[in-house]
Each structure stands twice: as C-alpha cells, then as structure tokens.
Write a structure and sequence with these properties.
Length: 510
C-alpha cells in the first residue's frame, strides 16, 4: 500500500510562473517564505513532502529539495529525518512580525512624522538643485607614467584572485566598446548611473541575492565607502545616534564619525549583531550599519530572528539600515543566503554591493539599492561629490553581466575560494597546533583567527608585516569593549603555495 503524504496543503502554489528572472526553485522558496512571514503557516506546521510537492507542481523533486534546503539554511524550516519538514518554531519574532511590519505586496508611502532625510541631507539636495556645474576641457601633455606599487604581502586585505580573472574576455569587451563608442557618449553621464547597467543588475541581484527592486532604485557608485559616505551625509545630523557592529568595519565607523554621529557600539555574538542590546542602548537611533550575511571581520551570520527584529525596530523607529553585502556570493555550505533587503517590506534598507571585490579593485564600480523615497536624494548628493561614474566602464561591465560572464566567474571563484579556504584551515590546524582558533568560515574571502587570551595581536601583526604578511590585528576593530586578540586572514587572493609559506612564517613567529 502506498504511503500517504501528510502535511498542510499549499494553495499558494496553484501555478508557477514562467519567469525569465526567477527560477522555479526560487519561486517555490519565495512563496513558502512569504507564506510563513504573513502568518498563514504557523510555527510547527508540517509541510508536504518534497516528493508530493514536486508532483503537485509538476517540477523535479530536486527543484523542491533545493528550495527546502535554502529555507532550512535561513532558519525558516526544520527538517527531521523520518519525521518530515516543519515551519521553524524557534523564531520568537515571527508571531508578531507580520502584524508590526505590516507585510503587504504594496510598499507603504513615506511615513508621517520623521523626515526621510536629515537636515543636512535636505540642505545637500537643495544645494545640488541650485548648483550649475561647468566642465572646462583642458589639454596637456601626458605626464610620465606612474605605476602604483600594489600590496604584495601575503594575505593582502580585500584582494580577490586576479590570476583567475578572465582578462582576455575583458580586453575583448573593452576593444569592442572602444570601437562602438560614439561622440554622444563623451558627454556627462547620469548621476544615478548608466541605465543598461542598472537594468542588468535587477536580474542579477534577484537571482544571486534575492534582492527585489526596480532599476530606478539602483545608484552606481565608485565603492562601498562612497555608499556609506552619501548615506551619512543624507541621513544623519551631528549628534544623531547610529548603531555600529562591534567589532566592525573601520570604514563604516569613519563615515559615521565624519558625519558627527553619536556611534552606538552594538556587540556581535554568534548570531550577529545583538539587536536587543542596540534597542536598549539607543531605541531611537537614526541608522544601523550591519554586515548580516558575513559579519566583518568575525564572519558570523545574522540569524533570521534578529533580521526580523532589526527590520521591526527600523519600521517602528523610522530608522534606516545599511546592509553591506560585500562578499556573500561566496558561500561554501549550501546556496548563498538571501539578503536582508529581501525581507524588507517597509522600505528601510539601503543595500550596498561592490564589483571591486567581486572582480578587481581597480574597476571602482559599486552600487546601492535604495528605497524609492531616497533615490532623488542619493542622485542629487552624488552630483556634488564626483558627478557620475565613468560611462565607458559601466558599458563594458553591462555586457560582462548580460553575456553571462559575471555569473560564470562567480561560480569559478566560489569553487576556487572554497579550495583555498579548506587548504588554509588544514595548514593552520597542522602548523599552528591549536594556537589559532577559527570558528566561522562558511562564507566570504577571509577568516578571523582567534589567538589565545592574553596574546598581543598588534605586536604579532607588526612582526608579521615585517616578514611580508598582511595580517591585521582583530583588536583594531573594537572601540568600546575589551577586544579578543586575533588576526585577519584573507585567503582569496593568495596562491596555495603562498598560503603554506605564509602560515609557515607565522608559525615561526608564534
């Protein structure tokens, strides 16, 4: 007798769309997630088996399994061998999130009361509207060629693997666009960016990171630091409170500090930024900076419960959240987790991504996905900073994306970085004999290696620097709390032989 399937029916799955952007697995994933967040599927509810759901939807079982695996990785589902698949019950914020966040298919209008922009931000927009920008072309003889000396130290920070970059393909695209470049292309570009690139990013971000947006919400910038600078200019007045992860990215700290913000250091634990502590310290903060998919520098992931709590707080406080998603395409256990922005229904998240780490640092192209009511402010502020990003490189990057080269490159780098991470952990375990501990290493291009209590990581880092190693001390990323000593290891841009040589050198120092 055939075994009878048990589980609730899912009427939301009457039909899957033939969607050129979202794959079948992604449609299943997003519909189940949305049903859970809306409260239609209560915690503890048992779902149909993957086999039953596959038959009902007329898709392969592997497609359903992929969606279930992603939902389990993000904390929405719990799978029990021999017992079935259930909606996770250990999400305390889930029961009240739909009611407080007001989950709806329509984005709400700008809330009454608190102004979206800071006073300084409104002055910036006004100044941009009044300014007349004149460009005077000047000609001069080419200066002697100056070659910048790159950071050649082993484990150099923020450096992707450049040897594996498809340089021949990039050169071909450069040459093609140079031939097609018209005189009209020599004029000023759009402050928000090259429209075809912004349109191409909509599809890429939807499939790679779960980000849903209109192309008009995308602002092309030079780097993540520029995203942080513009956000601080527009959203913060001197004295405004801003949450900052501790330990956390020094560039974000600098941007907030230069804006005159009152920085609230919020501790990071194995579940990421402690949102409850942030609320206790500064419930009416204006802004929060987070690296939820791969916390910088520790490497932990912000739990689903805290993601929902962070968005709930932002909606209630009319605060903004800057999501710095700098390297989370590179996840080595399961598929990359969806971005925090994918859960944001209140329009409070500013999503920042960069091609400078994904491709190569000299590209100087990044992007921000901003809520609709901030688009004009960001574009106006951009005109006062540096006008616009170079249109030629944006056009080349557009074809690199639309022709499929970016997705292929990311897949290759994910496999390559996975191998190098495994090699680094293996060599550290054998050569360092327990003197360095690594806890979170499932994502990204670097790991945090914790030293024994009482170690002087700054002195070790200085001595390593003298030996040709770039290993920043983790204590540098703390500002108010007693730091735990450790070192920062970037393994993405270093060869297997240099990984072994570098760890041998460090073992000698230790």
């Amino acid at each position: 007798m055939a075994k009878q399937s048990i589980g609730v029916s899912l009427p939301v799955f009457d039909r899957l769309d033939t969607d050129p952007v979202l794959s079948l697995y992604r449609q299943i994933y997003e519909r189940i997630r949305g049903t859970i967040l809306s409260g239609s599927l209560a915690p503890g509810t048992r779902l149909p088996s993957s086999r039953t759901l596959a038959v009902d939807l007329r898709v392969s079982r592997n497609t359903v399994e992929l969606a279930f695996t992603q939902l389990e990785a993000e904390g929405f589902l719990v799978r029990k061998v021999g017992a079935g698949t259930y909606v996770a019950s250990a999400i305390p914020e889930l029961e009240r999130a739909p009611r407080r966040l007001g989950i709806t298919a329509v984005r709400p209008a700008a809330p009454s009361g608190r102004e979206p922009l800071s006073l300084r931000g409104r002055h910036t927009v006004g100044a941009a509207g009044r300014a007349e920008v004149w460009v005077r072309a000047t000609s001069r003889a080419l200066a002697p060629r100056i070659v910048e000396v790159p950071n050649r130290r082993l484990f150099a920070r923020g450096l992707p693997n450049l040897d594996a970059f498809p340089l021949a393909t990039w050169r071909r695209l450069l040459a093609r666009h140079a031939r097609l470049w018209e005189r009209e292309s020599l004029f000023h570009g759009n402050a928000a960016g090259y429209r075809p690139l912004r349109e191409a990013l909509v599809g890429y971000l939807a499939t790679a990171r779960g980000v849903r947006c209109d192309w008009r919400q995308i602002i092309i910038l030079s780097g993540t630091q520029q995203v942080l600078d513009l956000a601080a200019r527009l959203l913060l007045d001197p004295g405004d409170a801003a949450w900052m992860e501790e330990p956390g990215y020094l560039g974000a700290w600098g941007a907030l500090q230069s804006a005159g913000a009152r920085i609230i250091s919020v501790p990071v634990d194995p579940d990421g930024m402690n949102v409850d502590t942030g609320i206790r310290l500064a419930p009416t903060a204006r802004l929060a900076y987070v690296t939820p998919s791969h916390q910088y520098p520790v490497g932990v992931t912000l739990s689903l419960g805290r993601r929902l709590a962070l968005l709930e707080w932002a909606a209630r406080a009319q605060a903004w959240v800057i999501e710095d998603d700098y390297d989370s395409e590179f996840r080595y256990t399961g598929r990359p987790l969806a971005a925090l922005q994918a859960l944001d229904v209140g329009g409070r998240v500013i999503y920042a991504g960069t091609f400078n780490k994904l491709l190569f640092p000299a590209l100087r192209l990044a992007y921000a996905v901003v809520p609709e009511r901030l688009v004009d402010g960001f574009a106006a502020a951009r005109t006062l900073v540096d006008g616009f990003a170079p249109s030629f490189m944006q056009a080349v990057l557009t074809e690199f994306i639309t022709a499929g080269h970016l997705s292929s490159h990311v897949r290759r780098m994910r496999a390559l970085y996975h191998e190098r991470r495994d090699l680094l952990l293996d060599v550290m375990a054998r050569r360092l004999g327990g003197r360095i501990e690594v806890k979170s290493a499932d994502t990204g291009m670097h790991v945090a290696g914790w030293l024994r209590p009482g170690s002087d990581d700054r002195e070790i880092s200085r001595r390593a620097f003298d030996k040709g190693l770039d290993l920043p001390p983790l204590s540098r990323y703390y500002h108010t709390r007693r730091p735990r000593p450790g070192l920062f290891f970037n393994y993405a841009g270093i060869s297997p032989g240099d990984i072994r040589r570098g760890i041998d050198t460090l073992a000698t120092l230790l």
